[in-house]
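Board notes (copied after class):
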Amino acid sequence: MATTLTYTVFSLGQAQLHQLHTISGKLFVMGEVAVELFHESPTAFLQELRKGKYSKVNSINRDVLHTVAELQLPVESTASSAGVVLLPATTVEALLLDKRRLELVQPFKLALLKLASQEAARLMAAGEYELALPVALDAVQQGQALFKPSPALQLFPLYLLAAQAWQCEDFLGLASWLAMKEPGLTIEICVQEQLSRLYGQLYAFQGKSMEALAAFSEDVY
């Protein structure tokens, strides 16, 4: 019996997209992308995709088909016999650029970054650090690409996420450096306490008891 897949909903201006959590990864329904972002027929849009050689996944998975039908998402005319076409985030971003919907590119990237950060935090809260690590590292890479060329303070929470997931001092060092170098920034006490606490946890994990004690004392005082 088919089951409803987990999915994430986020908005881009007046448009709304569903990102399905499939066995092939987190993918968007091509028909919904066509209608919501480009106001085009899914069937005609699919022909454009084939000409442009964009990356896509054709799915006949029962759970995917069930979820698409349950959400009443628009699909191409061949979906009933050939399955539905799904798109990775990279293809959606490429389409936004190629079809000159430039005003949606930054919001799309920010939405994906927010979702990755939330997922990493959720996995760590559940104690799933091994699963959280690749998600947190992916969020860091997304943030670095989004806020380049110069380091931005927006990367601070991403570095903290990666440091917690990986138990890695390098990311804590990057977060500290980033906060200290931001022009005109006054570091809030809560930020300093968070850094000290994370350093303490990291040193304790590494068996460096004296360094951990010193870091925790800074958190307390």
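Comment from the instructor: The radius of gyration is 21 Å. The first strand starts at residue 7 and ends at 12.
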